[in-house]
Design a protein that fits this description.
CATH class of the largest domain: Alpha Beta
Number of helices: 15
CATH topology of the largest domain: Nucleotidyltransferase, domain 5
Number of domains: 2
Number of strands: 14
Strand content: 15-25%
CATH architecture of the largest domain: 2-Layer Sandwich
Shape: globular
Largest sheet: 8 strands, mixed
Structural class: alpha/beta
Helix content: 40-55%
Order of helices and strands: EEEEEHEEHHEHHHEEEHHHHHEHHHEEH
Distance between the termini: 13 Å
């Protein structure tokens, strides 16, 4: 019996398959961002097992879930001839926005789905795919328990000074307007993994930077979140692939009042037309922007400089929340793979005790300390394991309420 973990995005679906001890059996993805007619399906079996790759027609989450289940079963039978496909006893779903009412991982039921629909405006890019994935699993695997694991849950520890906005207090009391924080599953894993890598220390002050298509940074003390850059929605904080991060609210009032940009058009720009894509005019993909900059594209270079600056500024701000930093973590697709970005971010942070070894940085693969040997603050590149964290949460929830 196994636990299937699904992490649904707008044009991709990541998956993981785990045994009852949360040991990884397989990982994979379905990606239709380039061509829905030729979506790439990849399943890698653990322990050096075979890589299964295929092209399928996928245009939406429901189809992606169906394809993922079919291909997972087929590749399992190829990997273990005569063994048959593993039975899935439960499914864990990553859900970005749980609001105040859904603050802990829990079994998915009708009431939860209704609340997730109510919260769509606070995570319009993320909650709809999660709801689609939940419905697709209900259809494909009727009767199989599903558990929602929330990105926002990690931030229930933020004190009032960090989660209340400086707006009329009634907005907080009556409307629930507050800082929630996101990427909590990743940041929680990285704080714990940093402690493991640094000798099991429990009292670490960690600033983790989750840099991918979406980006955020979080300060954690002894594994507990104390501050973060994202806010009420995943638009706040760091500059991202197509989202701007923190903005002067007067800017948004200006373009609405004086440039004729309505609320719907502004929402579209803020979610899909800003960030790296908006500044560079090239792409929201960091690799494409970096390649353009190397060819002399001035706006691409500007976008990269702005990106590094925003990350650097966030680290400095979060360090004040901790009173110092023992470890700085880079994770997710950009954070794990863009060595020049890590160098650009870290070079001016000597006042925080940050100094990286250029050779270690350039060759970093997997979990590695890239700080100079005598640096006061350790700099870690960590491969985030969101699917593993979700699998563990599924087992915890099911242990409390057995099937």
């Amino acid at each position: 019996m196994s636990v299937l973990v699904l992490n649904a995005g707008s044009s991709s679906l990541k998956l993981g398959l785990f045994d009852e001890a949360s040991v990884a059996l397989a990982s994979g993805s379905v990606d239709w961002s380039v061509d829905p007619e030729q979506a790439e399906v990849r399943i890698q079996w653990a322990g050096g097992g075979p890589l299964h790759s295929n092209r399928r027609r996928v245009g939406h989450i429901a189809a992606a879930v169906s394809v993922a289940l079919e291909e997972l079963s087929a590749s399992d039978q190829r990997a273990r001839p005569g063994g048959g496909a593993r039975l899935i006893r439960a499914v864990g779903q990553r859900v970005v926005q749980g609001g105040e009412s859904l603050s802990q991982s829990a079994r998915i039921d009708a009431g939860m789905k209704e609340e997730l629909r109510r919260l769509i405006d606070l995570a319009p890019l993320h909650n709809p795919p999660a709801l689609e994935a939940i419905a697709a699993v209900e259809s494909a695997l009727p009767g199989v328990a599903q558990v929602a694991v929330f990105d926002t849950a990690y931030y229930t520890t933020l004190d009032a000074a960090h989660h209340v906005y400086p707006v009329p207090y009634d907005w907080y009391e009556s409307w629930g307007v507050r800082r929630f924080g996101f990427h909590g599953i990743s940041h929680s894993y990285c704080a714990a993994r940093a402690a493991e890598l640094l000798g099991g220390r429990r009292d670490l002050h960690v600033v983790s930077c989750h840099l991918g298509s979406g980006c955020s940074a979080t300060a954690a003390r002894s594994g507990v979140a104390v501050a973060t850059t994202m806010g009420l929605t995943p638009l706040d904080g760091l500059m991202m692939a197509t989202r701007p991060g923190a903005l002067d609210p007067g800017l948004m009032l200006y373009v609405q009042k004086h440039r004729g940009l309505g609320a719907d058009a502004l929402e579209e720009v803020l979610n899909h037309g800003a960030g790296l894509a908006g500044v560079s005019g090239v792409s929201g993909d960091y690799r494409a922007v970096e390649a353009a900059a190397l060819l002399g594209h001035a706006r691409a270079r500007l976008a990269l400089d702005m990106f590094a600056l925003r990350v650097r500024e966030a680290i400095g701000a979060l360090a004040t929340s901790l009173g110092g930093v023992d470890a700085l973590v880079f994770t997710a697709g950009v954070g794990e793979n863009a060595a020049p970005l890590r160098a650009a971010v870290c070079e001016p942070l000597g006042f925080l005790g940050v100094q990286i070894d250029s050779k270690r940085n350039a060759s970093a693969r997997g979990d590695r300390d890239i700080a100079a040997a005598d640096a006061r603050t350790r700099v870690l590149v960590i491969h985030t394991e969101e699917e593993l964290m979700i699998a563990r949460e599924v087992e915890r929830v099911l242990a409390l309420a057995p099937l």
